[in-house]
Amino acid sequence: MRPRHLDDDRLYECYVAQRRGEPVDPPAAEHLTDCEPCAAQFAEMARLMDMVRIEGEAEADAVFTPERLREQQQQILRRMDAVARPARVLSFPGRMMQRTIRVSTLRSPRWTAAAAAAGLFLGIALGASYEWESRGRMLPTLVSRNSLGSRGAHLAPVPSRGAGDGAADEAFMMELETALDRPHTRELAAFDAFTPHFREIKDQQR
Amino acid sequence: MSGDVRRVPDPEGVSDGQSAGGAAAGRVAVVAPVSEDTRIAIEVRGLVEHGELDEARDRFAELVSLHQRRASRIAYQYLRDVADADEAVQDAFLKVFAHIDTYREAWPFEVWFTRILINGCLDRRKARARRDRWFVGGGISSTHEARASVSKRDADPEHQALARERRARVAAAIDRLDGRQRTVFMLCHFGDCTPREVSAMTGLNESTVRVHLFRAARKLRGLLRGKP
What is the tens place of the pLDDT at every residue in A42-54? Predict the structure, then answer.
């Protein structure tokens, strides 16, 4: 009785063994010599697999030419050198950095930080109290103005005063203007005395 | 591309320097004569431990020469981008050198190195997928540049066009494989690894590796012969 045909896996196993130069499974080898269809299938499969391998290798070898491989090897060795010998660090920035760090850490004891914090706190407290006081001073004025304003709305109209009162008011306003017009700087007072004022010229024209 | 960006487990604690002894480490013990690359790796480890870095670097260059082409093939098949693959290979070698003190000769150097490379490639694929999600790619990628450079060398335009088409079909078919299937298939086909070695690299059971390999081969055959 003729044994069954070899399946694909057995055929492939035979192909791998043959390619690697290893002994092929004896029953399978015997079957391949006896059975023509299996031998044909094996030959076809071997041809296809060889084609896959040869084409793949040829494609890779065409890309990785001997020159490229040499270059790759040199690149590997260069990178190995870089790994083995780490980059040299310039001493200048390193020293500066160390000194800066040392200075900042050694000359700044804890009490400095505490004093700075206390100073900040005192400053904030004083500022807050001053502001509170000035508000307290301004408050009555505002209250009186507000109260006057609100009250004035309900008051009756002020009766007109006499001519004497008007002259007195005029004189007061003149004095006020004179005081405001005068220079506040003592050194300029002499120049101001020589300079004719618009008011005086107006009086002379009258 | 489900399962595409799964990282390969680290049964020996490659990157953290611990010998955790994971599932694969417990299952598979590779008892084989020490290969040349493993011997060099042990020497490099000794030199690094003794602080002889210059000599270690020179010896490590030999390791790079031994594994560079294979690593580039694997990385390129994973990433399909020249610049990405180049960087992934460089990063893998650098990582190996940086962690050479954690290397244990219980595993061949090739297994250890490939695991690191695969993890790097998976991370890159993940990063690229994230980037592509947010940014619309523009301009000519290095893959296209590579294809252009290949085509420049090839004199016969017809042959060039056929080869390009064939490679594109193969690449597209491989790209349609499930993440694990692709990893296993690529390690076996382009990395020349045995299922046992792939098992050690990926942390998968050896029989699971075989299953993935068979499925990948079956799917590839279907795709390349025009079957879905």
Answer: 888 888 888 888 8
Distance from CA of B201 to the nearest CA of A (A): 18
pTM of the entire predicted model = 0.58
Identify the pLDDT of residue A162.
Answer: 53
User: Which SS3 state, helix, strand or coil, does residue B90 take?
Assistant: helix
* A63/B82 Cβ within 8 A: yes
Q: What pLDDT, in 10s, does the model give residues B83-132?
A: 999 999 999 999 999 999 899 888 889 989 999 999 999 899 888 888 87
| ipTM of the complex, rounded to two decimals | 0.71
Q: Which residues contact A109 (CB under 8 A, 6 or more apart)?
A: none
**Which residues 144-183 of B have a C-beta within 8 angstroms of A?**
146, 149-150, 153, 163, 166-167, 170-171, 173-174
Whole-angstrom CA distances from B51 to A80, B57, B62, B109 are 14, 11, 19, 21
Give a yes or no: residue B11 inside a domain: no
Whether B171 and A59 lie within 8 Å, measured CB to CB: yes
Domain count, chain B: 1
- Checking if the pLDDT of B217 tops 80, the result is yes
Distances (CA, A) of B11 to B17, B89, B157, B200: 11, 21, 49, 8
Which residues, 6 or more positions from B18, have their beta carbon under 8 angstroms from its beta carbon? Answer: B102
- Kindly identify which residue of chain B lies nearest to residue A51, measuring between CA atoms: B170
Residue A195 backbone class (left: φ over 0; alpha: ψ -120 to 50; beta: rest): beta
Closest residue in B to A83 (Cα–Cα): B98
Mean pLDDT of chain A: 76
Give contacts of B188 with chain A, Cβ < 8 Å: 16
Q: Do B68 and A69 touch (CB under 8 A)?
A: yes
Range of the domain at B155: 23-224
Give the residue from B131, B104, B86, B129 showing the smallest Cα distance to B34: B104
Domain range summary for chain A, segments of one domain joined by +: 8-84, 173-206
